[in-house]
Amino acid sequence: MLSVYQALARLAATEFGDVVSGAQLVGGSPASPNKLRITLTDGSFLDVWLSADGDYAYHWEQRRQQGRLYRWDNAPHHPTINTFPAHLHDSDEDAVVESDLSPAPESALRQVLVFVQRHLSPDEAGNDA
User: Fold this and answer.
1) How many angstroms separate the CA atoms of 30 and 51, rounded?
2) pLDDT band at residue 129 using 50, 70 and 90 as cut-offs
3) 49 touches 37 (CB < 8 A)
4) DSSP annotation of 17
């Protein structure tokens, strides 16, 4: 996963520099990190967790800034969602909706960061809180 996380960190920095302020590998070991943490310009962060067997979670933690969280994941715990197991926790842990996130990590990260761009106001995007 190391090379995938490194490629995603480069993608975030080069294509989304207007909302991304940094990235770091978190947990595990240097050769096998648990996840990628992307720091956003409003002081929130996006954690990217991927597994070798295709499980994923893209978690935008914005509770401190706006009282919200957004998480795209494919954990099989919401079978009533039409896109099961893929789903989105939409601004709240309990607000679960369908997700059309790409299974390809690069495409998925682009989709998530475009979502972040749309949801950050100009004031939020310009502040390092």
Assistant:
1) 16
2) very low
3) no
4) T
- Global pTM value: 0.89
Cβ contacts of 41 within 8 Å, gap of 6 or more: 18, 19, 20, 21, 120, 124, 125, 126, 127, 128
Residue 54 has phi, psi (to 5 degrees) of: 100, 0
Supply the DSSP symbol for 121.
-
Enumerate the β-bridge partners of residue 69: 61
User: 24: which 2 tokens?
Assistant: 């770091």
CB neighbours of 72 closer than 8 A, spacing ≥ 6?
A: 56, 57, 58, 86, 87, 88, 99, 101, 108, 112
Q: How far apart are the first and last CA of the chain?
A: 30
pLDDT tens, position by position, 41-85? 999 999 999 999 999 999 999 988 888 999 999 999 999 999 999
CA–CA separation, 17 vs 15, rounded Å? 6
